[in-house]
Automatic annotation (TrEMBL):
Keywords: Membrane, Transmembrane, Transmembrane helix
Organism name: Sphingomonas pseudosanguinis
Name of the protein in its database record: Heme exporter protein D
Annotated TM spans: 6-29
Length: 34
């Protein structure tokens, strides 16, 4: 059961990092347009 909590944590970190990277790149793109 502990391995599933580790898998869930790994997925959460991966998705969070991907979302953060997308948000940063999106904000940088919007800022560069002006």
């Amino acid at each position: 059961m502990s391995q599933w909590s580790f898998v869930a944590a790994a997925y959460a970190v991966m998705l969070g990092g991907t979302g953060l990277l997308l948000a940063i790149s999106y904000l940088a793109m919007k800022r560069a347009e002006k």
